[in-house]
Specification:
single chain, mainly beta, 44% strand, globular, disordered C terminus
């Protein structure tokens, strides 16, 4: 995944939500069909890795969202350090 962020909102009835990039910036929209594991509903605050794509006249959307497993508060830097060990 080239980006990470946290679920900002998700409407189960619409099957759509917003994810806030970890590195800052505006929240990006996504659809349930953009979830790699679309059997699990995302919850506000969960971390996801994702890709981006331009649609609707150049608007950026999140796609290929994949849930990041909990690592006791560690971030991407901590995961990279664990992989080196």
């Amino acid at each position: 995944m080239s980006h990470t962020g946290k679920i900002h909102s998700y409407d189960t009835a619409k099957g759509a939500g917003m994810i806030t990039p970890e590195k800052g910036g505006d929240a990006l929209p996504f659809n349930k069909s953009d979830l790699k594991d679309n059997g699990q509903e995302p919850r506000v605050g969960q971390s996801y890795g994702y890709e981006t794509r331009q649609i609707d006249g150049g608007k950026t959307h999140a796609t290929s969202l994949q849930h990041e497993k909990a690592d006791n508060g560690g971030g991407q830097k901590d995961r990279a350090e664990k992989q080196k060990a």
